[in-house]
Amino acid sequence: MHLYRTHTCNQLRASDAGATAKLSGWIFRVRDHGGILFIDLRDHYGMTQVVVHPSRSFFEALSKAKLETVITVVGEVTRREPSTVNPELPTGEVELVANECIIEAASEQTPLYLPGDEDGAEDLRLKYRFLDLRRDRIHKNIVLRSKIISYLRKAMEAQGFNEYQTPILTCSSPEGARDYLVPSRVHHGKFYALPQAPQLFKQLLMVAGFDRYFQIAPCFRDEDARADRSPGEFYQLDMEMSFVTQEDVFAVVEEVISKTFKTFSKKQVDATPWVRIPYRESMLKYGSDKPDLRIPIEMFDCSELFKSSGFNAFAAAVKAGSVVRAIPVKGIKDKPRSFFDKLGDHAKSLGSKGLAYLVWDGDAVKGPIQKFLTPDELAELARMGGATDGDVIFFLCDEAEKAAKMGGDIRVKLGRDLELIDKSVFRFCWIVDFPMFEKDPETGATAFSHNPFSMPQGGMDALLNKDPLDILAFQYDVVCNGIELSSGAIRNHLPEIMYKAFELAGYGPEVVEEKFSCLLNAFKYGAPPHGGIAPGVDRMVMLLAGEDNIREVIAFPMNQKAQDLMMNAPSDVSEKQLRELHIKIRGQELQLPV
């Protein structure tokens, strides 16, 4: 017989009754029923009930053992009494009556109560993450993550992609977040950077002729944490393709991600092709470039109507350059006044001066601003918003960007508060046609708005003959249930277009040649048209696991302050290490301002 087990704690069934089995695992629960111990023994695979009679020599030792003690048990598999069968467990029809037992490793009192459903304090969970990972929900999340990554690899290979590894120690590059810097011991005063993404390398692989690249790539960004973003390190399904259009990239992503979500969830997944929503339309209808399409609310613009209306507060603002955004909601006319007041207070907390509204009640229209509008104007608003009896339309007036942001927030709040969000579906969309340039709000100068290395729609002709603010780029985001899974683009592979695009953003050729010399030089030797994207693995797993926080699907995450409480990182290093790197820690009084 094997030293530790003949079966896992998830294998024994009624058909094994009468057999001798050996199990090893952790003591998960202990119940004392009339002097007989009933132990739930847990391992990676599942749980089996072990019965220990008081006549056994090891009974006293087990009765004193703490939860999470590791034991090996040999015994006879017996059927449970019908009244004690546990239908929640695959092993619930049987139990192991212990004849022999060895305590492999005793446990102290655990700082976390693992059988409980409560998560407990996050910092405590992260400090003792090795214990937290034993909890069933978290354990299953990490196993799910492993299976999803394995599936993604096979799905990409089925699409003709090969996996190539790119460097972890590289140079600092302007990806949009702070780099993690690594000092060089050999090259004094020089630094490597951990890659924010394999962006330049995967494009160079295309220039090198590899055609279809992918990688489950670790990425490092020194940025603040949030529910859908882990500080420090994250993983993405990085891919790049040569001789492709935007639609070719979409087809691969839709095939791989759609099948992944269908394989690992019972929820309904949008049929492909997924809806394409231009950026400006998304901002108008949803107030966001990552809209949650499960919420059946679409905003609309009614600035022109209010511009000539008798509602002077809006009319004057529109004439001064503001816009009016309307948020129509079906069937809520009977909500109490407090509902509308609280929503108005919420709008004010976002920076709005207030939240106007109209209520369609039978043949009448009611609300604080009804008296300022003509019957024709009310009828036109009803037509624009599809309002009928029982419906309400809310109105925001502000600068376009502020109105969009506030409206998007209120739309999501209404979706949650009114329970309009269908939690049984995954709704996907592509956000396309991002502006190539925008006006810097501080200087008024033309600046890149999204990704400076994207191909402008219309190529060089657009750069030469269009207003920069009217130029669109072949840039795209894929969004699921209001969470951005990834940004991507068809890349600019022509040096002359790169020079011109940077010129419009105020950068001379010397800047391009200094900061992006490697990519620029590669493009001078024949670069294929190429494009790609990199959906976030952590975010996909979070959605498929039904978690609201990305740290629940990462084995060893940092906390919100980018600290690893279990390994005590970041930590001090020795003076000897610093000397080898020619680094001196400056005193607090000498530190430069952040």
Strand content: 15-25%
Tell me the overall shape: globular
- Indicate the structural class: alpha+beta
- State the share of residues found in helices, binned by percent: 25-40%
What's the overall average pLDDT, rounded?
Answer: 94
Q: Helix tally?
A: 18
Oligomerization: single chain
Radius of gyration: 30 Å
End-to-end C-alpha gap: 64 Å
Question: What strand line-up does the widest sheet have?
Answer: 6-9-10-24-23-22-19-12
Strand count, sense and closure of the main sheet?
8 strands, mixed
Question: Could you outline the blueprint of secondary structure elements for this entry?
Answer:
Elements: E1 20-33, E2 36-42, E3 47-52, H1 59-64, E4 70-79, E5 94-105, H2 122-127, H3 129-132, H4 136-158, E6 162-163, E7 181-183, E8 191-193, H5 199-207, E9 212-221, E10 232-242, H6 246-264, E11 268-269, E12 275-278, H7 279-286, E13 300-301, H8 303-307, H9 312-319, E14 323-329, H10 337-349, E15 356-361, E16 364-366, H11 375-385, E17 392-398, H12 400-417, E18 425-426, E19 428-432, E20 437-439, E21 446-448, H13 459-465, E22 475-480, E23 483-490, H14 495-504, H15 509-515, H16 517-523, E24 530-533, H17 537-545, H18 575-580
Parallel strand pairs: 3-5, 6-9, 11-18, 12-19
Antiparallel strand pairs: 1-2, 1-4, 2-3, 4-5, 7-8, 9-10, 10-24, 13-14, 14-17, 15-16, 15-17, 19-22, 20-21, 22-23, 23-24
Helix pairs in contact: 4-6, 4-17, 7-12, 13-14
Concise structural overview:
By secondary structure, this protein is an alpha+beta fold.
